[in-house]
């Protein structure tokens, strides 16, 4: 019988995390490192990524930092190259960098360029990193991709159409890619946070909005980064070996809306 520890053991597995310098990305780097993975922390600036990598190394883990803006294809290629140069392969990919929404997407005030940018951010960058890493994962014999989606992917709210549509696309993309990657030994799943206390959330949170969110939340508090990263670890680790194409919403049991 497999030992409980081995079900969550990522010793020596190589994990790339985008937007790893803060919030859910930073928490993902930390929990995967604690499970033994070698981390490639990437963020917009090298300083932000390096600070997280330094903490991991200080705690006895292995990590390098890479500057990567997921909106730039040359950065995505360089990110994967850096992982291969340092560790020889990639086994785990956390497509965390993303955003938009926040009730600020009045359809008559945003333009096409905005809509395209949100899709580049939340969908195309994740797809491209899959394209770049899955052959490496397949060759290595272990591969798991985790996309960070959102409750917005299933909620209906005003002024959220670009973000919500892009996160819904991310869900359906993963469900379809599970068929492409499964025969190659690579899994792909999405984690959908409810409102989680990070810097991104703070930009839209008011006491009124928080009270409204809690009305829809059976467990009467907002989420923490640690609430979300437990699900990231689950999908990254051997414990979920027969799980692919799924979305796990981690949301205090409810459906949170900004309306
Ligand atoms: N916090 C929430 O309530 C919540 C809810 C649902 C979904 N999400 C999703 O979780 C993910 C992370 O959000 P968060 O709340 O942790 O955000 P955050 O702002 O705390 O952290 C995001 C990180 O991504 C980096 N980043 C921004 N633009 C980038 C780019 N172009 N390329 C690379 N990195 C970039 C930032 O520098 C930052 O370090 C996003 O995909 C978001 O849509 C968050």
Question: How would you characterize the overall build of this protein?
Answer:
By secondary structure, the chain is an alpha/beta fold. It has a single domain (10-250), classed as 3-Layer(aba) Sandwich (Rossmann fold), CATH 3.40.50.720. Helix content is 46%, strand content 15%. It is built from 9 helices and 7 strands, in the order αβαβαβαβαβαβαααβ. The protein has helices spanning 4-7, 23-34, 46-58, 73-87, 112-140, 161-181, 199-202, 207-215, 225-236; strands spanning 14-17, 38-43, 62-67, 92-95, 143-148, 186-193, 247-250. A 7-stranded parallel sheet has the order 3-2-1-4-5-6-7, sandwiched between helices. The model has no long low-confidence stretch (mean pLDDT 96). The structure holds nicotinamide-adenine-dinucleotide.
Features:
single chain, 259 residues, binds nicotinamide-adenine-dinucleotide, 9 helices, Rossmann fold, alpha/beta
Question: What is the CATH C level class, in words?
Answer: Alpha Beta
The tally of beta strands, per DSSP, is: 7
Mean pLDDT: 96
Run of helices and strands? HEHEHEHEHEHEHHHE
Strand order within the widest beta sheet: 3-2-1-4-5-6-7
Q: If you compute it from the alpha carbons, what radius of gyration comes out, rounded to the nearest whole angstrom?
A: 17 Å
Shape: globular
What structural class do the secondary elements suggest? Answer: alpha/beta
Portion of residues in beta strands equals 5-15%
Q: What summary fits the major beta sheet?
A: 7 strands, parallel
CATH architectural designation: 3-Layer(aba) Sandwich
Q: How many helices? A: 9
Q: Helix content range of the residues, please?
A: 40-55%
Query: For this entry, what is the oligomeric state of its chains?
Result: single chain
Question: Which blocks of ≥5 consecutive residues have pLDDT under 50?
Answer: none
Please give the alpha-carbon distance between the first and last residues: 49 Å
Quickly count the domains: 1
- By CATH, the superfamily comes out as NAD(P)-binding Rossmann-like Domain
């Amino acid at each position: 019988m497999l030992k409980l520890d081995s079900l969550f053991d990522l010793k020596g597995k190589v994990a790339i995390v985008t937007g790893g310098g803060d919030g859910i990305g930073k928490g993902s780097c930390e929990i995967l490192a604690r499970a033994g993975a070698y981390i490639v922390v990437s963020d917009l600036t090298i300083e932000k990524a390096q600070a997280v990598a330094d903490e991991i190394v200080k705690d006895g883990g292995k990590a390098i930092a890479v500057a990567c803006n997921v909106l730039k294809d040359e950065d995505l290629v360089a990110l994967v190259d850096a992982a291969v140069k340092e560790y020889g392969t990639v086994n785990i990919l956390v497509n965390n960098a993303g955003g938009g929404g926040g009730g600020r997407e009045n359809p008559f005030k945003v333009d096409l360029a905005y809509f395209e940018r949100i899709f580049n951010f939340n969908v195309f960058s994740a797809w491209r990193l899959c394209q770049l890493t899955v052959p490496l994962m397949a060759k290595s014999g272990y591969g798991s991709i985790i996309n960070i989606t959102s409750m917005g992917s299933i909620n209906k709210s005003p002024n959220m159409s670009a973000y919500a549509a892009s996160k819904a696309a991310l869900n359906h993309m993963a469900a379809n890619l599970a068929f492409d990657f499964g025969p190659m030994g690579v899994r792909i799943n999405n984690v959908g946070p409810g409102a989680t206390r990070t810097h991104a959330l703070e930009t839209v949170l008011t006491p009124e909005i928080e009270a409204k969110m809690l009305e829809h939340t059976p467990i009467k508090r907002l989420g923490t980064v640690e609430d979300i990263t437990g699900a990231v670890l689950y999908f990254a680790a051997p414990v979920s070996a027969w799980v692919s194409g799924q979305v796990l919403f981690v949301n205090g049991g409810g459906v949170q809306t900004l309306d």
